[in-house]
Amino acid sequence: MKRIFWTVAILGFGLGTACGGREHAETADSMGRGGRGGDAGAPDAIPDMRADAPMATDEQNELTDAGSVEMETASAIVPQCMGRQPGYKFCIGSTVYECDPSFSSMTMVLKCVTPKPTCMGGACEACQQNAVRLCSEEGLMGRCAAGMETCGPDGTWGLCSIQPAMSDTCDRDNDNSCNGKRNENCACINGETGKCGEKLGAMGTCANGTTTCANGQWGVCDTAAKPIDMCIFGNDDMCTGVPIGSARNTQCQCGFPMPNPASSALPNATSYTDNGDNTVTDKITGFRWERVVNGSSFTQAAATKYCSDKGPGWRLPNRLELAALVDFTIPFPAAPINPAFPNTPITSFWTSSVYAGVPNQGWIVTFFNGSTESLSYDLVTKSYLARCALGAPKCYASR
């Protein structure tokens, strides 16, 4: 077992003068027995070391001896100083000691003699055998404060029934180390929740996710990064901090060749394939469309749901995509659209695009004159038709 030496400064005290002028003094021995006054005299009171006690006199504090005490321990920290503050006073037998700032040494303050022969809570007091008190009366904090101490046959208080632990748990307000500092070394309190962006530094869509504290550490975000971003301006489902629209995000290049009517002699002449399953493929853009539309009218939100409910990959097109179907060479009253899309109503169709900065205004494409328009109507109350597209978008939804 490792031997640790604590430096101890032993303080002696001047003693009383007997009646008749005889002076008698004894130096307190190493077991804590104090000197006695003369036969007819009473011993001087030992100074009370508590913070509210009067200051001791120079005579009482006279340093009479110094030395070292050899003690065996398995730790380099004085056990009584564990979980305490520097300067904390405690008792060993009838002697008051004080914890040094290093916690690896202690200094003798004074020995307790009659009329206060018992060291209690770092001060000279007296206790009756079998008396009990809360450990908080000795100055213990945290969970130790609720423990009990019992006065032993030697008139000294025993150890607290609850001893400090090496560390706190991360349950709320825990102070198992009994030092008055709750939840030390805990990054968070068990059961707490927080935003992933604030607690974990998550970015993009993940930043709005939630993380929960367990074992004093923030857990995994409940919103996981996706393998690709949606082609919507500002989207960052991959949680990289590089959203769609950023120059560094080349995942969704906005653009595709715009078809032109075959009779116009312009580039990218229209060419469609009827797939035989009520879908038509545009060979120029690569989009796959509903051939014959549902005659029902929808709000923009309902149109979006109608398309997504058709199955994986189906969606409401944005305004540039739907405008690619307009054939401006077909005169009114026919619908300005290629015959590959028969029975197209001469009316307006919803797109997924919203007017920039005004979320209650949406874009439509009108298939009686081929125009695109922004509507200043509440999306919930206005209803139009929808023609759904199958496949990944080629432009942001705001276009």
Give an account of the 3D structure:
This protein is mainly beta and 399 residues long. Helices cover 5% and strands 23% of the residues. The chain contains three helices and 20 strands. It has helices spanning 196-200, 300-308, 319-323; strands at residues 3-11, 63-72, 89-92, 95-99, 106-111, 118-120, 123-125, 132-134, 148-150, 193-195, 210-214, 217-218, 272-274, 279-282, 288-290, 314-315, 348-355, 358-366, 372-375, 389-390. The protein has a five-stranded antiparallel β-sheet with strand order 13-14-15-20-16. Strands 3-4-5 form a three-stranded antiparallel β-sheet, with no helix packed on it. A hairpin with a 4-residue loop joins strand 13 and strand 14. The longest helix has 9 residues, at 300-308. The two termini are 78 Å apart. Mean pLDDT is 75; it is low at 1-75.
Short description:
The chain is mostly beta strands and 399 residues long. Helix content is 5%, strand content 23%.
Helix/strand layout:
Layout: E1 3-11, E2 63-72, E3 89-92, E4 95-99, E5 106-111, E6 118-120, E7 123-125, E8 132-134, E9 148-150, E10 193-195, H1 196-200, E11 210-214, E12 217-218, E13 272-274, E14 279-282, E15 288-290, H2 300-308, E16 314-315, H3 319-323, E17 348-355, E18 358-366, E19 372-375, E20 389-390
Antiparallel strand pairs: 1-2, 3-4, 4-5, 6-7, 8-9, 10-11, 11-12, 13-14, 14-15, 15-20, 16-20, 17-18, 18-19
